[in-house]
Amino acid sequence: MNSIIENIKNRKYRKKKRINRSKAGDITLFAILLLFGAFSAFPLIMTASNAFKPLDELFLFPPRLLPRNITFDNFRDLSELMSNSWIPFTRYFFNTILITVLGTFGHVLIASMAAYPLAKYKFPGRTLIFTLVVYSLMFAPQVTATPNYIIISRLGLIDNPAAIILPAIASSLGLYLMKQFMEQIPNELIESAKIDGASEYRIFFTIVMPLVKPAWLTLIILLFQRLWITDGGSFIFSEELKPVSYALRQIAQGTIERAGTIAAVSFIMMIVPVTFFIFSQSRIVETFSHSGMK
Known about the structure:
mainly alpha; cell membrane; 15 helices; about 70% helix
């Protein structure tokens, strides 16, 4: 069984044959990619640079890309404002971690378990269910905001972290990605596991999930980024239940004197998801290329 799985992995991730190009073509392609890469990275570099600029450099026009006099005053001011908050800042972090971890883990687990029968079993209504899942991806969050609020309100979950966690778990994007990825697993592999006496749960957790690792890693990254920056929206009103992004934005809302604090807040909110993405970007590209999403 292990040898079969290894052969599938080797076949799946083998390197493609290199396209023959001239050296001039390689240099041109590299220059184009470098130009687009620098253009894409410019906002990130500017955000990180602003966090270490003094106030006089923040208001220069045209703005400088890198700070001339590096300072940590923005972070010291932010720390002082956080220490004066009447709700302990650790409470905000706990709320964010609770929402992010439970929402991400629940979404990956539920989406994977729902995608497995859609990908590997034929039953009445299978095509209709997947069609509805695909159609649900076409609706913007603004369209579903009112129905979501009505459902959460009737469930009595207003002012409860579950108001953010449950919609995240029920997101249809994960079901789509996992189903598309699981369809590539040979049926013979699952049938041979059943012949060996493996149960459905064992097949799912020891064979299927390891083979679709790029897909569920991508789900973790995408949902982690979304939940990390949530501020509670129209579901959470209690100050003690607000996530850390809400607290940071409240601190940043002030006069022009807090421009440096705002820059520090932007940098802190950006650094965690960006770091997470940098170490996992190859998995994301691989998942979307295999699932057919553009």
